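Please produce the structure of this protein holding flavin mononucleotide.
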Amino acid sequence: MDMRVAVGGLMLQNPVMPASGTFGEEMAQVIDLNALGALVTKSVTPLPRMGNRSPRVAETMAGMLNSVGIQGKGITAFVRDTVPFYREFQSPLVVSVSADTADEFADLASSATVPGVAALEVNISCPNLEDDGRSYAMDPVQTRRVLEKVRAATRLPLWAKLTPNTGALTEVAQAAEAAGADALVVANTILAMAIDVETRKPKIGNVMGGLSGPAIKPIIVRMVYQTARAVRIPIIGCGGIASGNDALEYLLAGASAVQVGTYNFVQPTAMLTIIAEMEAYATRHGVTRIADLIGAAQQM
Ligand SMILES: Cc1cc2nc3c(=O)[nH]c(=O)nc-3n(C[C@H](O)[C@H](O)[C@H](O)COP(=O)(O)O)c2cc1C
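Below is the modeled complex.
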């Protein structure tokens, strides 16, 4: 069974990797990180960040809300401590980067371009302080502007992580491609809210948060399907994956690889099970190369 897929400048041994922010070094105690297609880090920011006020997560029907606010130690400590840790594993390391302005993004990309890092995932779903806090990936002009600056700042492959919170999905995808992105990650969380009727207050300290988990899967599968028709670069599907069949659905819609997020909290070994289930499906259906399934459900 040939599970390899080509994604944005990299050849992955299989299509399954973690989604940014749902995976960390501690996962090495639970699963063999060498078995994953790639390792994707929590978004790293230029400086240390405390994150948003609590509560930062709330469970919802078939999903969860989060508003963590990209808490982290900043790029200097990340390059010093985190990159060497992941360098011990053979799976390529993809560093997710997140910044407040286009120039900060470019400086961050440059600082993250160090030995051991195989690609950068540019989290353009985060708020753009030069555009009133709207996220870059809501708007094709902002998307192109920030990615062109990042492209000029690094030689590493760039994966642009899009947001579902836009009415201009295909235009944003095309703007990312035109700016030199090597792949698109579709997508980040859907802006959402939940209220506790007893306290009459929002369940998330930051009021609104991002919805993830099985509840969003059909929406993101639709987005992958649409994006795959709009661009030539590979797509990484991300949203609500909990099984091999979920991952296969994304491949059939047009994704070349997938990321697993929320389900890692439910079952930390899930990514390994998903890889095994995809292999079993391929064997059952006489598929010798998993890559042959990419886009098979696209209607001409
Ligand atoms: C607790 C939590 C933290 C997250 N942090 C990040 C982050 O730092 N950067 C990012 O690009 N996405 C982040 N995400 C979004 C996920 O990477 C993913 O896009 C989203 O959760 C949808 O996938 P899922 O339904 O499989 O969880 C986070 C999601 C969760 C649940």
